[in-house]
Amino acid sequence: MAAADKKASIADALDEQYYQINLDILESFSKYRPPLNLYRFKEDVARVLPYCKAGERLSNEQVEQLAQLVDEGLVFVSREDHPVYVKHISYQLDLVLVDKNLHETEIADIFTQALTRRLGEFFSQPVPLVFGKLWTDMMVLTEYLYADANRIRALSRRLHQTHTLANHSFNSGIMGLAVHIKQQSKQYEAGEVKRKFLDHLTAGLFLHDLGMSKIPPFMLEKDKALTAEDRGKVQRHTQVGYEMLAKLDLRFPEVEECVTDHHERINGSGYPQKKQGQAIGPLGRLCGLVDSYCAMTTKHPYGEPVEPAKAVAQLAQDQGYDQELSRILQAMVMLQSKPK
Ligand SMILES: [Fe+2]
Ligand SMILES: [Fe+2]
């Protein structure tokens, strides 16, 4: 049997309990102290046996032997160590693109952890260096979705329940992509969507509230309604965000539209420019809709979440939102809330 076939057949046989690891993944571990239990497939007895324990110190010979065994496809980690493995991979997200043994739901967990953490880091330190890491991880997501846009579904089932700026940004990004992909499903199937467009839209949706990172947290954590003055400050976040994009040299129209227009409403009831109808571009409308949906359905310091089904029904009746997008979101949420 060819080496590659042999590796695959061992992995298939053990798929349910173990993940086979490859050299990329091994290299991402601490060389002398792997962060989780490792197992070795013993061919003579056709069984998986413990190889070394989490955090155990390996000798130089063991390090060499381990690399050799990994290369032969004989080293595994247990699915019971899923949380450790997910956390580990989330620090080096591009590994999800090379690890063929991860399930779609496991990959979705990894993206959720990685992107939410990167968003949080960027919002607490919105400088180019930190942004670069967030951008890299967002591009891993778009590469993953570009290969099969339906993969967004597993991600859209992993929204955060509690509001923080990072959680909200993750949720809005994922829901925005889910609605967009549904709306453009034929174009995605036909391969007619440009990768660059998906990249920029993704960045716009995840970053729509970046201006909020400049608002002092105590103002956002208040458990009662804001004063008119405070509200004015908060409402400036779209303009502040736009200025931050320029400083990050992120001058793509898709990103700018999400940032500047997500509080504009088709009936003119929004801000800051009180734009109406077609004056608000399709991405501004998309971002506005999912932003509201995600804000309504998470727990805030000032209130409990609205049920998803109620939230979409409310949005569908609101003349401020794009009716077609609203219907797509509603159909999607109703389908998800159906018992299986
Ligand atoms: Fe906003
Ligand atoms: Fe928002």
Question: Top keywords for this entry?
Answer:
single chain, Hypothetical protein af1432, four-stranded antiparallel sheet, elongated, binds fe (ii) ion
Could you describe the 3D structure shown?
- This protein is mainly alpha-helical and 340 residues long.
- It folds into 2 domains: 3-82, no CATH class; 103-337, Orthogonal Bundle (Hypothetical protein af1432).
- It is built from 17 helices and 4 strands.
- The chain binds fe (ii) ion (2 copies).
- Residues 168, 172, 208-209, 291 line the site of one fe (ii) ion.
Short description:
The chain is mainly alpha-helical and 340 residues long. It contains 17 helices and 4 strands. α8 packs antiparallel against α10.
What is the number of helices?
17
Distance between the termini: 42 Å
The CATH architecture classification of the largest domain is Orthogonal Bundle
The strand order across the widest sheet is 1-4-2-3
What do we call the CATH topology of the largest domain? Hypothetical protein af1432
Query: What is the H/E string?
Result: HEHEEHEHHHHHHHHHHHHHH
Shape: elongated
CATH-assigned homologous superfamily of the largest domain: Hypothetical protein af1432
Number of domains: 2
Secondary structure tally: strands: 4
Helical percent range?
A: 55-70%
Which segments are poorly predicted (pLDDT under 50) over 5 or more consecutive residues?
none
Bound molecules: fe (ii) ion
Instruction: Give the helix/strand class.
Output: mainly alpha
Round the Cα radius of gyration to an integer and report it: 23 Å
* Main pleated sheet: 4 strands, antiparallel
